[in-house]
Amino acid sequence: LIRHPQGKSGAYTVPAGVNTIGTSAFDHCTGLTAVQFPASLLTIGYEAFDGCTGLTALTVPAGVTTLKGAAFASCSGLQSVSLPASITTFETSVFSQCTALTSVTLAPGLTVLGGYAFSGCSALQNITLPASIGLAAVADPLVRVLLGDKWLDAIPLVPLLATAGAISSLQTNT
User: Fold this and answer.
1) Which of 11, 40, 66, 156 could form a disulfide with 34 if both were Cys (CB 3.0 to 4.6 A apart)?
2) Residues 4-10: contacts with CB within 8 Å, 24+ apart?
3) pLDDT tens across 148-157, in order?
């Protein structure tokens, strides 16, 4: 989908067969209140829904693997998001400045989590991360405490193994 007409308001159903929502396709469509995505959707493009302040809830369908940078940035009315387990790539600033968003659960198969993903989300109280991302983030102290100094050479391997485990779990769930 290349572009949604600017002046339209209300709910919108993306046509069946669409596999990519293009860059800025719904950019600043402030009257957009809901979006129904087709099962064929794989990617939501850069700034695709940037500034869609009328969106309050969002359900991304199973099958979507990539949310490009700032895909839903500045959707200040967005309160809830349902993300599928199929998402592996969550680029920079995807939900930045979504000031009403309170909780997000990220998929266990997630392998790329871009910076500033939730920057400026002032109401956000809970982010549930996949164990693989958490394990990669605490590799150094985890190895030191659980295994001791003789295993310090293994520290760089822990994030790799955590990512491999996440990919493996995604492959077995499809």
Assistant:
1) 11
2) 4/29, 4/32, 7/31, 8/32, 9/33, 9/54, 10/34
3) 788 888 878 7
